[in-house]
Amino acid sequence: MQDPSSADNVKAPNPETYIEETPIWRDGTPVETTILTGMQWRIWWLACAGKFFEGMVVFMTGIALPLMAKEFQLGALGHGFIGSAILFGILIGATALGGLADRFGRRIMFIAEMALFILFLVVLAFAPGFGIVLLALFGIGLALGCDYPTAHMIISENIPAKARGRMVLGAFSFQAIGAMTGTGLAILTLTWFPELEAWRWMYLVAVVPAAFVLAGRFMVPESAAWLMVKGRVKEAEKALLHLLHRDPKYPSKVILELPSSMLQQPAAEINWRDIFLKKKVRRATIFASVPWFLQDLGTYGIGIFTPIILASALGESRQHAGSVSDLIYNDLLAAKGAALIDILLIVGILFAVLLTDRVGRIRLQVIGFIGCACGLALAAAGNHVGGGWDIVLIFAGFMLFNFMTNMGPNAQTYLIAGEVFPVAYRGTGAGFAASFAKIGAVMTAFLFPVLLKEIGTDALLLILVGTSVLGAVVTWSFQIETRDLPT
């Protein structure tokens, strides 16, 4: 393999030249397989942790919610505040804190967000009142929101293009693994500590793995691509050597130069309004934002409140729980049901990883939306049958929903938003799409308990059936397939 830094190269390569390089056979035949270094794998695993903790904390909140409501004497409005606090924090953090990665660097924010996450987990576990609980949940959301752009950038700027798609989607899959883990931790906590304050232990347990992740993030190098944009060439060379460390050592040295365009003319400032004013970019904005908003309405609402729906639907639950023991029993029963349902989140994301480059983003998203609608309709029908079929249909409906949303819109909207915009507008456009989507998540989390009480489970599920069908229509109408396009 020829060293890109050798004297035979007329033009000094950029960071991507080193990162994208693959081995060749002796006769010059290139090897298609991407070989990642140990540091590249470490960066990927540490980036996966952000999505893992998001899934864990958000879904665990659904199980903790009845206990919090009992301790703080909350009504439907209080339920809504707790359910939406994390999501509102994610909405703000993705734009307010995530943008700081462009100013201070990817590595700094990669570390800061995890430190912030741990801090507010501890505050939440020892919160003396409802106000502090809301503040801590919002702070946790800020940290998770910052992770949305930061983790994506730290993967895409350090991983070869041939592996980038599946690595980004693979990292996203840890949201489902986190959801399963959070549900499992909640079940164990309720089993070992059947007390009203068991919810505090649920969040406190998460501090331990988060501390290990924080320590690991101190050991990763800064993005060489970001350092080059800042004109810090020597630091970029050192970061690349750290990233591409191998045994035997290759490359032996790294030589980078700023492109002449950067030396002669600074990059043009991007006007964020162009994502709405320019026709081609506006289409991409609608395509990336609206379906993501619609899928978040269902995914976060169902994810957070599945235990509550199951607790009210399962015949074995103790109606009108007046004691703490009855409340714990119902919460544990619903948590076990939610754990079974959440398995399909992992199965769905595995199908997404396998099929997204074969079937295409558009088809998977449309099929997924239609499947979500069918699952929710099936769950709604469960309330109108007897003979034991009610529980079967409710479980089958939610399981179908979880599988279809993670195979389709939950995975594909995340992937599409980072691919569909022109390079000059990609950060602005993808950031807006993520924020717009989280507005839907916050709305659902806040309004779900209120609507559940006012209009009932049937009407609420049928509304979400409609939003899923609308998501399929918008996806098909504004489609821009990015499967075979270079990033």
Task: Please explain how this structure is put together.
The structure is a single chain. The protein has 487 residues and is an all-alpha fold. It has 21 helices and no strands. It has 2 domains: 15-32 and 227-264, no CATH class; 38-220 and 268-477, MFS general substrate transporter like domains (Growth Hormone, Chain: A, Up-down Bundle), CATH 1.20.1250.20. Helix 3 (76-96) runs parallel beside helix 6 (130-156) and helix 8 (174-192) packs antiparallel against helix 16. It is found in: Membrane. Residues 43-483 form the Major facilitator superfamily (MFS) profile domain.
Outline of this structure?
This protein is mainly α and 487 residues long. It contains 21 helices and no strands.
- Specify the helix fraction band: over 70%
Q: Separation of termini?
A: 26 Å
How many structural domains?
A: 2
- Uncertain residue ranges: 6-11, 263-268, 313-331
Structural class: mainly alpha
**Can you tell me the CATH topology of the largest domain?**
Growth Hormone, Chain: A
How many E-type strands?
Answer: 0
Broad shape: globular
Instruction: Name the CATH class of the largest domain.
Output: Mainly Alpha
Rg measurement, Å: 24 Å
CATH architecture of the largest domain: Up-down Bundle
Organism: Roseibium denhamense
Main location: membrane
Family: Belongs to the major facilitator superfamily. Sugar transporter (TC 2.A.1.1) family.
Pfam families: Sugar_tr
